[in-house]
Amino acid sequence: MEQTSITIKIPNQLLELAKSLETESESFNDLVQKALEKEIKWRKAWTAHQTILKIRQEIKETTGVHPDPIPLIRQLREGENNHE
C-alpha cells in the first residue's frame, strides 16, 4: 500500500502514553495506523447500523408492527403432531 507522510497534533500525555506502549515489533507509526484502521471500521459499522435502524423505522411506519409469529408456529406444529 502506498504511504503518505502527514503531520498531526497529539496531546503530550497521549503521545507519551502511546510511546510507552511501543514494542520492538511495533513502532509508534504502526500503532497509529492500527488505531486509525480500527476507527474507520467502527465508523463504517456505526453508519451501517444507523442505516439499518432508519430502514427498520421506515418499514415499521409503512407496514405497522407485525404480530408475534411464535403462537402461530406452535399452533401449526401441534396441528402437524395431531395428524401423525
Explain what you see.
With 84 residues, the chain is mainly alpha-helical. Helices cover 69% and strands 0% of the residues. It is built from 3 helices and no strands. It has helices at residues 12-20, 28-63, 70-82. The protein is elongated, with a radius of gyration of 26 Å. The mean pLDDT is 90.
Highlighted features:
about 80 residues, mainly alpha, 3 helices
In brief, what are we looking at here?
The protein is an all-alpha fold and 84 residues long. It is built from 3 helices and no strands.
- Overall helicity: 55-70%
What characteristic shape results from the CA principal axes?
elongated
**SSE order:** HHH
Rg is: 26 Å
Main sheet: strands, sense, barrel: none
What is the secondary structure topology, with strand pairs?
Layout: H1 12-20, H2 28-63, H3 70-82
